[in-house]
């Protein structure tokens, strides 16, 4: 068990290699994510067996209640999360390196919910936040996600090995809309340049305005592009129609998964189905890399009335719903924790 020394380039490379190549690897556990979150503190804990990293815990810290820090391991740890004794020891290691005013270490690994795992963490002293949290925004990361499984899961599904099989995996009207976009002259490009980010951001702002929600500043995405450019782990997809970028998406490739993380669209061009064309190209990217999962991101619930689910489900209607374990909270300061949790009640 050790804390990663960011000045040790060899060990940093080994840490990143594990996070990027482990089947359950996640971009939010990469030290680059700590660089992206420039206003957050960070500590990187790793465990080795026979000199090889087999578990990592990236914890970023931010003031979440006055004078007290939340320690958040986004989509972490990466490793065997059923080994709760190991995870507890890694938390202790992190706390030794973090400031004394941390009130909470929060884990939310991308592992399926089960009563057994939930109970095991509770019995080990964790506070778990999953099925009792009814609001999608009651957790930092959504617990319910729409996922397409290239290896063929769910009733009526079969392994997807080529683009024809991928296309026929979608609902019929989705296939028609992808073809309609192509017939109308919509083309999709992908890249990782500053100009790609600038074009994405225009549609991202449009979408946020249309939905009445806030959005991140362009500086955040430009920093993202700067950090991941040339890695092959990050791509910006842009749908073009008659000289206009009408839809966009940003995806990350880590472990066995593509994570569709951000999107944008110009509703003036909705009839040309730019978002469907973007998804088609992003899903083909995952297929070309031999991925097992394509994560469309979170939904409020697995019901047609949920707008996010309604769009995403059509691509993955054969696939089982992905319900994750949720937040596993190791409470250090109960008063700070209660003050924090009250914000979500």
TrEMBL record:
Keyword Transferase among UniProt keywords: yes
GO biological process: cell wall organization; peptidoglycan biosynthetic process; regulation of cell shape
GO MF assignments: aminoacyltransferase activity
InterPro entries: Acyl_CoA_acyltransferase (IPR016181), FEMABX (IPR003447), PG_Glycine_Bridge_Synth (IPR050644)
Keyword Lyase: no
Stored Pfam families: FemAB
Alphabetically ordered keywords of this record: Acyltransferase, Cell shape, Cell wall biogenesis/degradation, Peptidoglycan synthesis, Transferase
Top-rank lineage group of the source organism: Bacteria
UniProt-listed Gene3D superfamilies: 3.40.630.30
SUPFAM superfamilies the UniProt entry points to: Acyl-CoA N-acyltransferases (Nat)
Similarity comment: family membership: Belongs to the FemABX family.
Protein name in UniProt: FemX
Originating organism: Leuconostoc kimchii (strain IMSNU 11154 / KCTC 2386 / IH25)
